[in-house]
Amino acid sequence: MDGRSQTGLVCASSIDDYNKGIIKKHEFTRPEKEQDRINHITATRAQTGNVFLAYNDVPELNALISHWQEHNAPVYDFIADDGITHTIWVVADDAAVNEITERFATQVPATYIADGHHRAASAALVQKAGGTDVTADQPINFFLTTIFPASQLAILDYNRVVKDLNGHSKEDFISRLEYDFLVEPIGHHAQKPSMLHEFAMYLDHTCTTSWPGKAPTPRTPSACWMSPSSRTTCWTNIWASRIPVQTSASTSWAVSAGSENWLNG
Fold it and tell me: Which tens digits make up the pLDDT trace of 51-68?
């Protein structure tokens, strides 16, 4: 997408690692959404919700994956309706799978959930409900993940629309923002963030940027607010600095890799 590709490992990750914090989370989850996922897993007796994990780059793993792609034919290679190319290789060689697993066990101390907190939490709750008779190698002890090295991650715009100002005038709204933010007009064109903690907002035909508290120090983009709308509305683009990421010992059986944006296998 946008001339960029990314390759991840489709794995069965350990729920025990999730429970121990080796697979790290950064969001709270809602019980009603967890229950919906639990019902789906229980009814289908399958894990169909892929969890997006990330880890700090390991050069040896990158080289191993690239070597497999270069010397093996993919089992799937297609362009989806949205124009994104998906290419999937199956790593069916025991020696390669064992080396990947060993590298994760010794060089990747943790992974980080980039997307899929409810899917992961629900899988853990289903496993817990299985009781003490569950043996270590049973499928209930694992959940479906795709794991990407941090260098290949890109945080895309995440937009929010605010329908009104809750009774405030435009002037009052801006004034209240100035209690906590430095606000600066930037013209009439939508803006993406240029530094950490920067927000942009389109309000009543005018763009502004703002920073919490004090004048910003240039850093990696973190968040942006904007809305190309003629009404008194705004929406939000959420960005984040590149997250440090890693993985655990039990994440690499049934491994496959793919390219371009999101991979399914």
Answer: 999 999 999 999 999 999
Distance CA 162, CA 57 (A): 38
Say what the pTM is: 0.68
What would the mean pLDDT of 23-34 be, rounded to a whole number?
A: 95
Residue type, 25: K
Region of 262 please: left (phi>0), alpha (psi -120 to 50) or beta.
Answer: beta
Contact 33, 39 (CB under 8 A): no
20 vs 166: CA distance, rounded Å: 43
Catalogue the E-assigned strands of 74-222. Answer: 76-79, 85-90, 111-115, 142-149, 181-187, 199-203, 206-212
CA distances from 188 to 87, 173, 200, 203, 231 (A): 41, 18, 11, 10, 14
What pLDDT is stored for residue 235 in this prediction? 28
CA distances in angstroms from 32 to 38, 52, 118, 150, 247, listed in the order given: 10, 21, 10, 31, 29
pLDDT at 225 over 70: no
User: Bridge-partner residues for 209, per DSSP?
Assistant: 184, 200
pLDDT for residue 210: 63
Helices (H), the chain: 15-19, 31-44, 59-71, 94-107, 117-129, 170-177
Nearest to 15 by CA among 140, 189, 151, 193: 140
- Name residue 216's amino acid: P
Helix (H, G, I), strand (E, B) or coil at 71: helix
